[in-house]
């Protein structure tokens, strides 16, 4: 029998085409890569797998094409037991991400939305009721994000990555908003109505975001851990787990999915972020996004 859904992800699903190389090319430059691989990705699908593996019964709502890439895009979610009944099949091709990773584990990513562009308000409303904690990202249309938020019955985890224009009232529904330092500055720019992105330190940006009325906020800082802020509780910095990173692709998604899973299982936000930091640290020690996610929680 299907377990009651604890986390629902409405979002994107891609096939990642990853090229491994000594260094990333500059503008107009060609660099020979050492190898490449095809693997499942997309921020929504990554977060769905992470939430499931981190201990929450999870559903993914999104869209793929009627093409051979769809099996790659959904394969690891299906194997892990993520509920996929409401993934639409569209005439648009399955989304693709073209990823370059260098020897220092830095990456650059270009995303072709494909079927993800069809996850609009109409599609989300047609999918029906949303169960459990809702998780959203910025790789689907803003109308789909807003429709999902309107249908949410529990708290909303918003990972607005990439940062897209979203009405203030919807930004403030996030609890928490989970972003990296660059995304945090861009969102503050949106909320301030400023033409200039803030270059202030992350704790200051966190304070200013919270002053706009966010219920809670997590700013991920890579090797420097993360900042956690909640109304009435101030800002707390959590250290990162020290590991040797070989590929950071999908680590932020692993973090977000794990946060949602632990919140669904009763952790407070600091506890959830601490767990998610450990979960994400395991993922950067192997190549790929979903393939690097831990299948066991014994080391956490």
Automatic annotation (TrEMBL):
ATP binds at residues 180, 220-225, 252-253. Keywords: ATP-binding, Carbohydrate metabolism, Cytoplasm, Kinase, Magnesium, Metal-binding, Nucleotide-binding, Potassium, Transferase. Activated by a monovalent cation that binds near, but not in, the active site. The most likely occupant of the site in vivo is potassium. Ion binding induces a conformational change that may alter substrate affinity. It comes from the Bacteria. It holds the Pfam family PfkB. K(+) binds at residues 247, 249, 283, 286, 288, 292. The active site is at 253 (proton acceptor). Substrate binds at residues 14-16, 42-46, 139, 253. It is found in: Cytoplasm. GO terms for molecular function: ribokinase activity. Pathway: Carbohydrate metabolism; D-ribose degradation; D-ribose 5-phosphate from beta-D-ribopyranose: step 2/2. It catalyses: D-ribose + ATP = D-ribose 5-phosphate + ADP + H(+). Residues 6-294 form the Carbohydrate kinase PfkB domain. Homodimer. HAMAP family: Ribokinase. Catalyzes the phosphorylation of ribose at O-5 in a reaction requiring ATP and magnesium. The resulting D-ribose-5-phosphate can then be used either for sythesis of nucleotides, histidine, and tryptophan, or as a component of the pentose phosphate pathway. This is Ribokinase. The gene is rbsK.
């Amino acid at each position: 029998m299907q377990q009651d859904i604890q986390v629902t992800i409405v979002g994107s699903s891609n096939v990642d085409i990853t090229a491994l190389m000594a260094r990333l090319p500059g503008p107009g430059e060609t660099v020979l890569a050492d190898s490449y691989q095809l693997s499942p990705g997309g921020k929504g699908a990554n977060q769905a797998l992470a939430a499931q593996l981190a201990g929450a019964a999870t559903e993914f709502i999104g869209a793929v094409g009627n093409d051979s890439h769809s099996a790659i895009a959904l394969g690891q979610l299906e194997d892990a037991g993520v509920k996929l009944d409401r993934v639409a099949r569209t005439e648009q091709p399955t989304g693709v991400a073209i990823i370059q990773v260098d020897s220092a584990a830095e990456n650059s990513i270009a995303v072709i939305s494909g079927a993800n562009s069809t996850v609009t308000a109409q599609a989300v409303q047609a999918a029906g009721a949303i169960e459990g904690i809702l998780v959203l990202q910025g790789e689907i249309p803003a109308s789909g994000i807003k429709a999902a938020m309107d249908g949410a019955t529990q708290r909303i985890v918003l990972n607005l990555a990439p940062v897209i224009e979203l009405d203030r009232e919807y930004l403030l529904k996030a609890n928490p908003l989970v972003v990296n330092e660059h995304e945090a500055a861009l969102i503050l720019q949106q909320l301030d109505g400023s033409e200039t992105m803030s270059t202030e330190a992350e704790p200051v940006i966190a304070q200013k975001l919270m002053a706009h009325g966010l219920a809670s906020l997590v700013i991920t800082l890579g090797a420097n851990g993360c900042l956690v802020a909640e109304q009435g509780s101030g800002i707390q910095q959590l250290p990162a787990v020290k590991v040797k990173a070989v590929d950071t692709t999908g680590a932020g998604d692993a973090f977000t999915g794990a946060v949602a899973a632990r919140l669904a299982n009763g952790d407070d936000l600091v506890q959830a972020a601490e767990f998610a930091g450990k979960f994400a640290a395991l993922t950067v020690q192997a190549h790929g996004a979903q393939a690097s996610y831990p299948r066991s929680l014994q080391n956490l």
